[in-house]
Please model this.
Amino acid sequence: MFPVNILTHKNSIRLLQIQPSLIKIKRRYAGDKDRLNEEQYTLFKKEKYSPFLGLIPLFVQLILIIGVLQVIYNPMQHMLRLDKDVINAIVMTSRALFNVQGGSGEQLRIIEILRQPENLAVFRSALEDLPNADNIFQMIANTDLNFLGLNLGMTPSFAVISPEMSIPVISGLAALALCLTQSAISPGALSQGAGTNWGLTIFTVALTLYFTFVTPVGVGVYWTTKNLLGIVILPILNSLWNPDKLAGEALIYIRTTRKTSAQMHEERLRNKALRIREKRDVASFCTANKQLVFYAITGGQYKYCKNIIEYILEQSDIVIHYLTNDPDDAIFEQKNKKLIPYYASENRTISLMLKLDADIVVTTVPGMQNDHIKRSVAREDIEYIFIPHGLAGGVLTSKEDAFDHFDTFFCIDPTQTTYLRQREAMAGLKKKNLIKVGYGVYDQLIISCADISHIVNEKPRILIAPSRQDDNIMELCIDDIFSSLLGKGYNIIVRPHPQFTRMFPERIEAIAERYKQYIDNGELVLETEILGNKSIFTSDVLITDWSNIAYEFSYCRKKPSIFINTPIKVMNPNYKKYGVEVLMITLRDMIGVSVDVNDVKYISSTVAELLTKESEYKDRIEKIVGKYLYHPGRNGEAGGRYIINRINER
Model:
């Protein structure tokens, strides 16, 4: 087993070394199982780690255990080397003379019977014609299965109190000792959480106790010896391939990011409370008489529907049933009796949607019918409406079939209308209701901006607001941006995407530590808790990569943005065949300037130039808003009136 242990030990160290990358992948793609599996496979292949190597010891042990059981249960064959015909003759005679029952331990019971002199005489007379009978019976009579006072062929039983009863207990203690040793120093266990290790320990000890109680003592002795040798071998392996030396940085990362026992306990209590809450809310949702349902995955999606919901509540008596997968959604704080919120997990939502009975369902979640949310099988006439969540997006940032199964689409700009009609024609789809609605967040920002947009900053204020996608500014070039801008008389605000802050808090902490001097003197602000939009409305220039916040900033403030050309996330690789203008690309150099990652070190000169061209950009952006945005300031009315009319038509 030692060569196998070496192989798996090295493989476990490799897993330990890639744990930081693995943790980041799990955080980033927590809600996307397909992408998660794809990224994990790519990482494993790149780092030459095989999850299947960890199964080799299990298979080897399984083969060895089967071999041990074969030897113990069949001593005449494996220990005495008797011919098959001789064994069959002895077995058949034993069944006839002593009523021995068949089964896995039959040969063991026969040996015990033949070790009695009076039984041996009966056998001799019954099998006197058996060749070399005296030698065979003498070999059987002399077979001793005792070791250190223990009968290796005996199966422990509560019916007979004997020293053999101690073996399962000793085996369980040896298994416990091995598991505790592994949890403390094994590279495989170090890459797992304490909860996982304790779960495996309990399972292993319980399995050992059961297995050694239902098999002969010899198996328990072997199992105990194996576990004790494992305790000895593990420190030897660690001395030869030391995890602290070979994966020291990974261990530090794991220890600093791992949840404490208090945090895990708090999380368990919260999950328990959420299950109770979900059960109550789901029951209420199922029994409610529903005409209009809004569905959101996160609390952040409410802003895209806010204006429409408020218009419906003000202009009609329609009751809105708002289903969300976010237990902390701010929707639960509202007090309007005609807006009823419900919490359900994503998994529970799948079945709720399949059985849904309503007239209209409105959501900002794409992928209807193709992803986890399906159209209802209870009613075929439900109208499903999609609300986009971002200016200049859609063609590039959504899957090609993301909107195929919606009945109605609330369009923000003319390019969406053109793309959807092209998609319908090329894919042979039924025509949707394409309603010119505009962008509710823009309307909200314009109102909020009016009160503080007149503020003149003492120093030019630069807002850095990256996207959440892979290889964003925070990952690729934030230090180069700081190097170019800090100390140049600017007030700099960094506003990481909330999901990036949640997934990688250690990176935010590292940045805060590196630039503590500038944070202390007020030149740099890390805005990790987004409580409002003041930083957007009071900034003079925005720096981003592919975030929609640039269009919101420039459209509302009429000021330019700087776009860093990090790798673009393309969800629709076939977008070019539709021949539709991709605003996310074309507008970058219309409402601002795009900069390659390699040129970020000169970004201070770009900022200085843009600050001198504010009036030029103001006129240009006003024209762009008029051309590319439906119904500015009237999103709630356009969308709300359509929904009210559709419900009244039912």
The chain has four domains: 2-49+163-257, 73-143, 266-439+635-649, 452-628. The chain has a mean pLDDT of 87. The longest helix spans residues 261-287. Residues 464 and 494 are 5 Å apart (CA to CA).
